[in-house]
Structure formats: C-alpha cells, structure tokens
Automatic annotation (TrEMBL):
Organism: Rhodococcoides trifolii
Name assigned to this protein: TIGR02611 family protein
Keywords: Membrane, Transmembrane, Transmembrane helix
Ranges annotated as spanning the membrane: 42-63, 69-87, 115-141
One Pfam family named in its UniProt record: PGPGW
Amino acid sequence: MAASENVRNKSAVDDDDNAFEEAAGRYQEFRAKIAEKPTMDLAYRIGVGVLGAIVLVIGILLIPYPGPGWVIVFAGLGILASEFAWAKRLLKFAKKKYNAFMEWFGRQSMFVKALGVLFTAAVVVLTLWLLGAIGLVAGWVGLDQAWLQSPI
C-alpha cells in the first residue's frame, strides 16, 4: 500500500508540474503576442509597473500590522518581476533577507519575541488612535475623553 501511495503522490506532483509548465507556456505566448506591437508592449509594461507599485506600496504600509503585509510586498515585487529585471533581483534579495531575519528572530529569547509583539501592538494602537478609531469606540461606550480623540 505504501508503494502505491508513493506512486500516486509522485503522479500528483507531476500533474502539478505539468499544469505549471502549461500555464507558463500560455503566458509566454500571450506575452510574445503583446511584444510584437511596440505600443501594446509599452502600455502593458506601464500597466504592470503601476499595478505592481500599488500592490508593493500597500504591502509596505501593512508590514507593521498583524496579517499578510510581507505576502503583499512579495506579491507586488512578483508582479513587477514579471516585466522588470531589477524587480526580479530585488525580489530574490528581499526573500533572502526576510528568511534570514525570520530565522534569526526564531532563535531569539522569549524576551526579544515579546518585545516584537509589544512593538507590533504599539504600532496598531497608535494607528487606530491616529485614524480616530479609538475615540469612536470610546464614544460608543461613554468614554468621551479628549485624549482619546485623534490629533489629525
């Protein structure tokens, strides 16, 4: 039974690899058709650049918050890397540095990890205060204090 499971698992991996190669081939054909027309090629590259930059900036803004900030950064770089060599190099560099930092952070003491959690919590609370969310919720429960209101 174990041998048949290995064959089945290998078959599933081969199917995934084939599907990926097939999709990559279709994308390359699509991209080649666009590249034949200089105006379309320029418009496509500008569109990819704008979309990738927007996704990247959103990801950078979300890094300090709990959630998918880094995933969004890497997605933005991936979008840019589909058209720009500099972005491909930056994506590779960023992944390497991110993985090294996470490995380092994982080896740290509980004190350092707790400081990381406190820093993240402070950034979230500060942002909520600046955006007026804390004052809004405080008003709902009858805590109308001036210091809870956003300064902006």
